[in-house]
Amino acid sequence: MSTSDSDEDAAASGTGLRPRLTVIGTGYLGATHAVCMAELGFEVLAVDVDHSKISRLSAGEIPFFEPDLADLLRANLATGRLRFTTSFEEIAEFGDVHFVCVGTPQRPDGYGADLSHLNAAIERLAPMLTRPCLVVGKSTVPAGTAAGIARALARLAPANHSAAATADAGADAETDADIVPDLAGVQLAWNPEFLREGFAVADTLHPDRLVFGVASPAAEGALRAAFAPVIAQGVPVIVTDYATAELVKTAANSFLATKISFINAMAEVCEAVDADVLTLAEALSHDVRIGGNFLRPGVGFGGGCLPKDIRAFQARADELGVGVALRFLREIDEINNRRRDRVVDLVSAALDGTLAHRRLLVLGAAFKPNSDDVRDSPALAVADLLARTGADVTVVDPVATPNARRALPGVTYSETVEDVAADADAVVLLTEWRQFAELDPARLGQLVRRKLVIDARHALDGDRWRQAGWVYLAPGRPTGVIPSPVPEQRPRFGLPAATGPDAAARDAEIEAPVGRRS
Ligand code: UDX
Question: Which of 221, 241, 332, 469 has its CA 20 to 30 A from that of 427?
């Protein structure tokens, strides 16, 4: 194993010798990992089969939205520590530790994980590994996958069965001895990643824990060298076997999904008895055994991880004959999906049960704020459901519009609210972008046809919107009853909307009980 040119710096900073790192796959996970490891002082070479992605990254452009990442990318490209390539030969030659960060999406034909990108990456890389090195899986995989990959490396990597190749690496092995004393051949480790989109840089530079699934002390040593600057911060390191490391990730995401669906289930019950789920969540959060994180009710979880990970976990448990243990995850998924229908019901009820030809202004397309990711986005799913009823849907999102257009072409998009608010029958907030929370309800009220807002993420100040004459509805909040259909404003769009005490009196009438939901 070779050492990088920055060894002297590294030694001086007390972090020891530094392995050269490669990153395979430059999506959210891989691009962030490559940039952050270079930021931590390592020499990093990242590879992807997508030439256009590599061109953009090499030019200092991040192909997705992630706060702070572009600045770090450009800074580290400028140091020369970070480079990108499409050549697997180059990374095989360069790397001491190879991080595999390719996607493992849901299979199109079922709940299981699609491991084709992972298998392809290993099959391509392994035959080129002619000297001792560590391959580190970071992708989220079903338990048991790493053991299979270790077997594939043992079979395919020349360094594992060629005495000549190992001997050729002798010159490098001298310096390796300082980093990883006993790493012989090509070994595998599993190191799940817990970064959140929108906080990817901070989560990678300062993770709350590191999990190392290893099969030898030498592999652990190599991983410790690769994470030395992070470990030096005092970050806990859990060293375990492959299967436990794989399970930590799927168990963590399952627990988070369960917490969200739990509070959303409570929202359903709150709706039935006219209770307030926000107050309930707050009261629960003061119990330190429960805690307040991931207890925000709303339209449910989405994104590229939680939904597909809980499904893949169920599929794997079925294969392992322990499907019954994870049967509750099916319910977690169902509760989550019901939230989307509930928002549609709220909009419909407030518009006299008729959505066809209603003009609906949907705020948000991304699965959460500070992201342009629309994978399994609750916001887009609701926009789709609304459009399928025949409503005229316009979606506004500060950054996710290009991705949303591709994922859901059948609706209209805009990047600004004011441009498309004219004649709206309802405003439906589905992603809690700060920009939406800061909207001026009085100003917006002058543009829309009906002052009806459905705040599916509890992101708006309901009192402020009500004071500005809006009918404010939010799932799980004590609206008490199906609201009477919200009438069109008189006078119509173009003239100042009614505000003040008269408007408040009118809204009190609008919200008069007409019947409880069953
Ligand atoms: C998640 C995990 O948090 C992360 O550790 C893992 O590595 C990848 O999956 P991410 O998908 O980026 O990260 O988003 P996260 O912040 O976890 O939110 C997931 C979804 O849950 C979002 O749609 C979010 O809006 C929703 N959510 C989150 C809630 O509805 N309520 C909450 O209280 C928290």
Answer: 332
The residue whose C-alpha atom lies closest to atom 19 belonging to ligand 1 is: 301
Residues 451 and 499 sit within 8 Å (Cβ to Cβ)? no
Q: How many whole angstroms from 270 Cα to the centroid of ligand 1?
A: 23
Task: Mention every residue, 6+ apart, whose C-beta is less than 8 A from residue 261.
Answer: 300, 301, 331, 332, 333, 335, 336
Q: Is residue 251 within 6 Å of ligand 1 at its C-beta?
A: no
Q: How many helices (H) and strands (E) does the chain have?
A: 22, 14
Give yes or no for a contact between 374 and 403, defined as CB atoms under 8 angstroms apart: yes
Identify the pLDDT of residue 490: 56
Please indicate whether residue 257, judged by its CB atom, sits closer than 6 Å to ligand 1. no
Cβ burial 85-101 (10 Å sphere, 16+ → b, else e): beebeebbbbbbbbbbb
- Helix intervals (H) in 180-293: 200-205, 217-226, 228-231, 242-273, 277-285
Mean pLDDT of 424-443: 97
Angular region, 125: left φ>0, alpha ψ -120 to 50, beta rest = alpha
Q: What is the CA(79)–ligand 1 centre distance, in A? A: 33
Least confident of 174-178, 239-243, 259-263, 472-476: 174-178
Q: Which atom of ligand 1 is nearest to the CA of 203?
A: 5
Which amino acid appears at position 265 of this protein? A
Give residue 16's pLDDT.
55
Ligand 1 midpoint to CA 118 (Å): 24
Report the nearest-CA residue for atom 7 of ligand 1: 194
Q: For atom 14 of ligand 1, which residue has the closest CA?
A: 196
Average pLDDT for residues 105-111, to the nearest whole number? 94
Confidence (pTM): 0.88
Neighbours of 204 (CB within 10 A): 23
Distance in Å, CA 72 to ligand 1 centroid: 24
Choose which residue among 295, 333, 368 to substitute to test ligand 1 binding: the one with the highest number of ligand atoms within 8 A of its C-beta.
368
- 102 CA from centroid of ligand 1 (Å): 20
Q: Say if CB 9 and CB 43 are below 8 A apart.
A: no
Condensed to tens digits (0 to 9), the pLDDT of residues 157-196 reads 999 886 444 444 433 443 444 444 457 899 999 999 999 9
Atom 16, ligand 1: residue with shortest CA distance: 196
The answer to whether the CB of 253 falls within 8 A of the CB of 305 is yes
